[in-house]
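Input C-alpha cells:
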C-alpha cells in the first residue's frame, strides 16, 4: 500500500531560501532585452551575464580549434560508417549462406 503525502499541513515560515529576484530568463536569439541593456550599461557596473574569457584566442587559433573539432567529429563518424558497413557485410554473408 502506497503512503500518501501529507501536503495539507504545510506552513510557510517566511524564510528566504534563495533570492531569485535578480535572475532573468536568457534570450533564445542571443540579444538582451532593452531593460537588461539599460541596467547593464550603468557606469561602474559590469554586465551580469557576460564574463571575460580567461584566455584570449586569436582568429587563427579559433579556426584551428574549429577544424580540430570537425576532424574529431568526422573521425567518429567514419568509425560508425565502417563498423555498420562491416555489420551489413556479415549479415548479408550469413543470409546468403542460409539461402543457398
Amino acid at each position: 500500500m502506497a503512503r500518501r503525502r501529507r501536503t495539507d499541513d504545510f506552513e510557510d515560515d517566511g524564510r528566504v531560501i534563495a533570492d531569485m529576484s535578480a535572475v532573468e530568463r536568457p534570450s533564445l536569439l542571443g540579444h538582451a532585452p532593452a531593460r537588461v541593456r539599460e541596467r547593464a550599461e550603468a557606469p561602474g557596473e559590469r554586465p551580469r551575464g557576460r564574463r571575460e574569457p580567461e584566455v584570449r584566442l586569436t582568429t587563427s587559433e579559433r579556426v584551428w580549434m574549429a577544424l580540430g573539432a570537425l576532424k574529431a567529429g568526422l573521425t567518429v563518424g567514419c568509425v560508425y560508417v565502417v563498423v555498420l558497413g562491416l555489420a551489413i557485410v556479415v549479415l548479408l554473408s550469413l543470409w546468403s549462406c542460409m539461402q543457398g
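The chain has a mean pLDDT of 80. The CA atoms of residues 62 and 68 lie 10 Å apart.
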